[in-house]
Design a protein that fits this description.
By secondary structure, the chain is mainly alpha-helical. It has one domain. It contains 13 helices and no strands. Helix 3 packs antiparallel against helix 9, helix 3 packs across helix 10 and helix 7 packs antiparallel against helix 13.
Length: 296
């Protein structure tokens, strides 16, 4: 590997570390936005759409528009699902802790594994079955010992709903071919905004004009940094790193979320809930790591 390639690898690793660390702090800022979850998701999409557009102009990405035409309906549907995913994820913050929201959300890779075996006829091996059962057991621990009662359980269910929708977005993306990740996400943001706009208008209405200066700053941080900038860094790093490297570093996100939840927001989490979360993360990670035995 040349010095130039080593530098690219190091830069990509730092990019994904920064991205995952920032993702882990999302709940801290969303909690300070005095808007309905749907409207927060709507403005997040608009701000991130503009930011990614500027990055695309700067990086001068070339896009195969023929392929875009073939996949436009998938991009639209997956973008709409992404928007609803944001609503459920933000709503989970309103009912339970940042830690439990994030840990339940990380059940999504397990959903992808099972759905892929059904939709794409990908065969499950013994390791995948064991990891699925262990991750599910971890989820049962989280749900079964909810310390906040019914409200806590509602939040966890919102988190699981968001995880299910995120899994659907991932499955759509698997069938989108070679469309550049940043271009794909930019178009999905556009679709999310188109879907969320009418929903916000007919349900909670647009209340952003009454947002406090603190709330507005937090909304801009979520849209610009947690979504626009961080998605750019994330997809740029994926173009350089191997999938396994990216998967391992992605677990910085829930680690930071738990630290923020417990030590900054002062939210409680029981030993059993933490154990369940660790089981979900560890066995999902084990599934993503390819270990070869014997001669290689």
């Amino acid at each position: 590997m040349s010095n130039e390639e080593i530098k690219k690898q190091l830069l990509a690793r730092w990019q994904i570390v920064v991205a995952m660390t920032t993702f882990g702090t999302l709940g801290l800022f969303v909690r300070n936005i005095q808007l309905a979850s749907a409207e927060t998701a709507f403005w997040r999409g608009i701000i991130a759409f503009v930011v990614l557009f500027l990055f695309m102009l700067y990086s001068k990405n070339k896009t195969d528009f023929t392929m875009l035409k073939k996949s436009i309906w998938k991009l639209f549907l997956s973008g709409g699902v992404m928007g609803i995913n944001w609503i459920l994820f933000f709503e989970a913050y309103n009912h339970t802790t940042v830690a439990l929201t994030t840990l339940s959300y990380y059940f999504a890779p397990t959903v992808v594994i099972i759905a892929s075996s059904i939709l794409f006829r990908e065969k499950l091996n013994v390791k995948q079955v064991i990891c699925f059962l262990a991750s599910t057991a971890g989820l049962v621990l989280i749900i079964g010992v909810s310390s906040g009662g019914g409200n806590d359980l509602v939040g966890i269910l919102y988190g699981l709903g968001a995880a299910l929708l995120y899994a659907i977005v991932v499955l759509f993306n698997k069938s989108l071919g070679e469309i550049h990740g940043i271009v794909r996400t930019w178009l999905q943001f556009a679709s999310a905004v188109l879907v969320l706009g009418p929903y916000v208008y007919y349900t909670c209405g647009f209340q952003v004009a009454g947002l406090s200066s603190s709330g507005l700053v937090n909304l801009l941080i979520v849209g610009v940094f947690h979504t626009g900038v961080i998605y750019y860094l994330y997809f740029s790093s994926l173009a350089v790193l191997k999938g396994q490297q990216a998967a391992i570093l992605s677990y910085i996100d829930p680690l930071v979320a738990v630290i923020v939840s417990v030590f900054i927001l002062g939210e409680s989490i029981t030993i059993l809930q933490l154990t369940g979360g660790v089981m979900i993360l560890v066995f999902t990670l084990v599934n993503e790591i390819k270990i070869s035995f014997g001669r290689g």
